[in-house]
Protein 1
Amino acid sequence: MIRKAAASEIVQLIAITKLCAAHMISQNIYQWNETYPNIKAFEQDHKRGELYVLHVTNTLVGCITISSKKDLEYDAISWATQDSKQYYIHRLAILPAFQHLGHARTLMDFAEGFAKSNQALSVRLDTFSQNKRNQRFYENRGYQRLGSIYFPNQSQHPFYCYELVL
């Protein structure tokens, strides 16, 4: 079941993202660290009503932020659609014990359906350049890679920006 997150679930989401970070680091993917994702980001997502959680048999297994807010870093990208009505995906996380079971696909299906039902032109996101699995995941969904941005507090490597035109 996917629904909007409760404020009380943010601590659990931080725990999930810490486990995800450790799991990625064990695979030499240094995408998330002690500074990101952080509680402030999740609190802002929740405050804007943009934070969603996925429960599987009463277990909180993942989250996704579906935001209408364009981060300044994205201004450097030549997007396929004009800035108008887009949704931006952030902080997609699945508890490692529940990965490879289609839950990320379920959250992305939900996000893309949400965008379509709200007459968005596209869905935009970024993913770490060293995370080849994520890149294949989004490319297989029809997302086009359009450029790179940097988050120096996270990594020296770029993050690739993707867009799915709806």
Protein 2
Amino acid sequence: MIDPGDQKLSIRKQAKLLGINRNRLTTRQSKTTEEDRKIMTIMDELYLECPFYGQRNFRENLKDHGYDIGRKRIRRLMRIMNIEALVPKPSTSVPAKGHEVFPYLLRKREINTVDDVWCADITYIPMEKGHAYLVAIMDWHSRAVLAWEISNTMDSAFCVRALKEALRRTGRKPNIFNTDQGSQFTGNDWISELQKQDIQISMDGRGRWMDNVFIERLWRSLKYEKLRLWSYHTIPELRALTADWIEFYNHRRKHQAHGYNTPWSVYQTPVSQAA
């Protein structure tokens, strides 16, 4: 949207009008090294096995793989991967400045119908060169994946695209949408889209690590059942593998919790029959 050749508005003024930092207009050389990528691949495997691992556990386990690195570097890599230890957290953290906190609406709520609650989460996917991020929109009751998007950056745009696709594809909307307090889900683009649809917003409170358990299981299954078994070098190749597996998950993978029906068949069941 920035036009460097505009005769009336300078780049500085255009960036200010769009709310963009001018520094983001210049391509920066990635600080992520080849060794960082190898370490993050190992960390991703460890995290799938032990999602409660924090900096200390990562540091000690990485030694078994020949990497004796400090916690500061591990903390930086965890931030790039968008992961944190799934354990109850102390109530000493302070939300980022300007972060609008919405209440957690699911406490003691029985979720036994589709479209009552949707949720979203993001996972890190290592690649041969660089990495990618995958966001999924899931119906809480049926566990059906309603939409998903892949991006090589952690901005909110690909999350909003997935949300709009879920609304378009299903022709429905949930009563409540629950997410964590990640920057992608607390930004104005995401919040305004939910408010425009008159959807109640719920955010995991501090220590509510179990609230993402269904999508965490989805990520684990996707990586072990598909991505770890196939090679991919580009985003289009990764997208094709992901599309193939999610089609299998939605339409052919039977869930014991739903009487061995598939997630999509449960999602499509009329409310009167489901009741």
